[in-house]
Amino acid sequence: MTYQEAAEHAFGQAVSFDPQILRSYDHDLGEMPRPLMALIQHRPHTVVVARSAADVATALSLAKRYDVPVTPRGQASAGYGGAIPSRGGMVLDLSNCNRILAVDADKNTVDVEPGVVWEDLSRALAPHGLDNRVCPTSAPSSTVGGWFAMGGVGIGSLRYGSIRDSVLEIDVAGLDGTIRTFAGADMEPFHQTCGGLGVITRLRLACRPAEAILPLAVRLPDAAAAARFLETLATTPAAYSASLVNAGYCALRAQAEGHRPAITSGFLVSIALLAPQADTAAIARLASDCGGEVLDDAVAAQEWEGRYYPMRIKKIGPSALVGEFFIPFEGFAATSADLTAALPDDAFGLEAFAVRGGKLAVLVYILDDAKALLYPLRMAKAMIPLRLAARHGGAPYATGMWFSALAKGIYGPDKYERIARLKTARDSRDLLNPGSIGGPWLPFLPIISLSRCILWGTACLAPLAARLSYTRRRATKHPGATA
What we know:
483 residues; alpha+beta; eight-stranded antiparallel sheet; 17 helices; 20 strands
């Protein structure tokens, strides 16, 4: 029996070899230049839409038997290449593994399949008096399993930390078709490795009581004041979530949505407090002590209701380069100042989430056009924010495939070595999401990883790229863009 015959026998209409369908699985949210994509086999030759853990186990057994690379995929809502095949093969679509398996209201936990969407989970938990502890800003579309496999922070991370801190145990399918449960330290290698060690088929999440949220909005005059404010806010018992945006981001979002910007200078901090414990007078005093002010309730409500989909500003680009990094509170002001100096002619917006432990996860959006002739060269700008942050204690946010050369720094040496040992033991032929751990090799020089080349290339090109500003068709840089 050939591979195609075996796949059709196992999955019937849930497997596809149709070129049109395969084309829709060869990319993620990122917009990488064609010359770079041409260096990997990003087009799969098979797509299997799994509907259960048994389907996942069958698909992996098939992949092992026929020596086929297999790339798991949720909604591909990140841009790090973690859901893009680097050696063709099979894409295992997990978006239909989307059942909520069990809710334990006494223990505040829920068991879900990996394809459950965060916003759907929040709605399903509500009748049980529970809600998600954390979720991404892409909650209306991104999946629970995908966010864990990438490693993420977002809404709620000020109080509860990363997604890793809210996952209690997972089931993982291996290439031999067996499914094992991992918890505690044994679970750690599967976090952030994008299915490179196995495919997650179930997650048990800790939930929070569905207490009412009281949103507040505060304007701070500069980055140093914003960092001071967040550092104290983090110690407030009612603090649940906090994010900040600069005036440049507010201007871009206002243009995208057709309204006036909430602020025209400084930083806007959007706070979510647990209403039963909220002390708004204390927040107002804290804002005043930092040189800021509490804004109208209408602004606070608008910011909280609009907390999802920060990438909507992209439509006025019509593309956006995105730089992402972690920075401790104490390094934020210096990094922000360096960014303003390094990108003097670009319209860029900055958004950040406060994370438990005194740090920020920062995203820098630089508008551009992926179809423009100079876009491949200007892409080097996306690495400028990370390099500037590193001077002030910053670190990379995630690896995926494109930044797998940074994996040792992101995982830490101990976890990195453990992952390497497990990869050898569980997947010696590198069939599980090849390239997600260590990166794909250059086709014409298979001793150098593509990810390493990206880092070298962007480091060389960044000074030139910073001088090549992108001129949008409908707007010029907003006066507050570099505030």
